[in-house]
Write a structure and sequence with these properties.
It holds the Pfam family DHHA1. Keywords: Hydrolase. Its EC number is 3.1.13.3, 3.1.3.7. One of its GO terms (molecular function) is 3'(2'),5'-bisphosphate nucleotidase activity. The protein is an alpha/beta fold. The chain folds into two domains: 2-188, Alpha-Beta Complex (inorganic pyrophosphatase (n-terminal core)); 193-315, Diaminopimelate Epimerase, Chain A, domain 1 (Roll), CATH 3.10.310.30. 38% of the residues lie in helices and 17% in strands. It has helices at 2-11, 25-41, 123-133, 141-155, 165-175, 181-188, 193-205, 220-225, 230-233, 271-275, 293-315, and strands at residues 14-18, 46-49, 75-79, 97-102, 113-116, 207-208, 213-218, 248-255, 258-265, 280-281, 285-290. The strands form two sheets. Strands 6-7-8-9-11-10 form a six-stranded mixed β-sheet. Helix 2 (25-41) packs parallel to helix 3 (123-133). The structure holds manganese (II) ion. Manganese (II) ion binds next to loops.
Length: 322
């Protein structure tokens, strides 16, 4: 599959790279890392980046404005996006050929060629592996910086369970390239003062249930009180993850007409629960949407039941593992 993808890239003069909406460092890292690799190794090719911009991540990458005509003969590559609805810029079907590169569990097969590896920490790690697999592709400092950003973002600085020995090996290979790592970390983890104040509010007000489910409900009023928007609250989902006895947790942030739920776990897999609430994602990190606070309470109840069930399963003597 890596060879096939490389053949397609070599055969294409125009390449447009997409990723998911509400971009995170891995979305930008894989999109921009792949684009930079192609541009640096094949300067004659035209490589375009499309999607909304992100103020907090524009130190990594800025987007292009891609005219409709450019799609006509283009190879389109979508990075880090499990399903069509989540692809930023719905013109992704208008190219000559479509490639999907992703590390989320498969929910939707939309590419002519697909390379999906849920065992990878990040799509950025996959792009770095792709680079390594093709001797013709030379890694460059700017590509390394972007791919490193994606790995750091999706692994929470190498602490989540998705990290493998290969993740560290890949990171080591990336940091051998001369880019300013200190400057990169300073940018990635700088915080807006209003967000820090909301962080304090979340820490003071989250609830922890007896079975180890944590939750916080941020109404639109609360978010506005801190002069923020709902999307600003998303970065706070892990702020109480170190709480003693916490097994799974959810941060609700209300928007106009809906409430986003960001769900995380240290034990039971939560992506199927998320799928019951118009969402999905990874076994330990998913997103969902509910439409009122009663539905939010139902999600919490389901999460509590899931954690209780998981506890019983692991404590039963004579279970398959023992
Ligand atoms: Mn990712």
């Amino acid at each position: 599959m890596l060879e096939k993808i490389f053949e397609e890239i070599k055969a294409s003069q125009t390449i447009i790279i997409h990723r998911h909406v509400r971009p995170d460092p891995d979305a930008f890292g894989s999109q921009g890392g792949l684009a930079t690799l192609i541009k640096d190794n094949f300067p004659e090719k035209k490589v375009w980046l499309t999607g909304e911009k992100s103020e907090s991540l524009d130190f990594l990458l800025t987007m292009d404005t891609v005219a409709d005509e450019i799609y006509q003969d283009a190879l389109v590559i979508v990075c880090d996006t499990a399903n069509r609805e989540r692809i930023d810029d719905q013109r992704f079907t208008q190219g000559r050929k479509l490639i999907k590169i992703d590390h989320h569990p498969v929910v939707d097969s939309y590419g002519d060629l697909e390379w999906v590896d849920p065992s990878s920490s990040s799509t950025s790690e996959m792009i770095a592996r792709f680079c390594r697999s093709q001797p013709q592709l030379k890694l460059t400092p700017q590509a390394a910086r972007l791919l490193f950003a994606g790995i750091v973002g999706d692994t929470g600085r190498f602490q989540y369970s998705n990290v493998t020995p290969e993740t560290f090996e890949t990171a080591a290979e990336l940091v051998r390239q001369p880019f300013d790592r200190q400057d990169f970390f300073n940018h990635l983890y700088r915080n807006n003062v209003n967000v820090l104040h909301l962080n304090g509010y979340v820490l003071q007000n989250f609830t922890l249930t007896p079975e180890g489910v944590g939750f916080i409900k941020l109404s639109l009023d609360t978010i506005r009180h801190f002069h923020l928007q709902s999307s600003d609250a998303s970065s706070l989902v892990n702020c109480f993850s170190s709480a003693e006895n916490l097994k799974a947790w959810v941060l609700f942030s209300e928007e106009e007409g809906l409430i986003r739920a960001r769900i995380r776990s240290k034990g039971p897999e939560i992506h199927l629960l998320a799928a019951n609430y118009h969402g999905g994602g990874h076994p330990m990190a998913s997103g969902a949407t509910v439409y009122n606070w009663e539905e939010a309470d139902q999600l919490i109840a389901d999460l509590r039941a899931l954690v209780r069930h998981d506890d019983e399963a692991t404590e039963t003597p004579g279970s398959l593992e023992s």
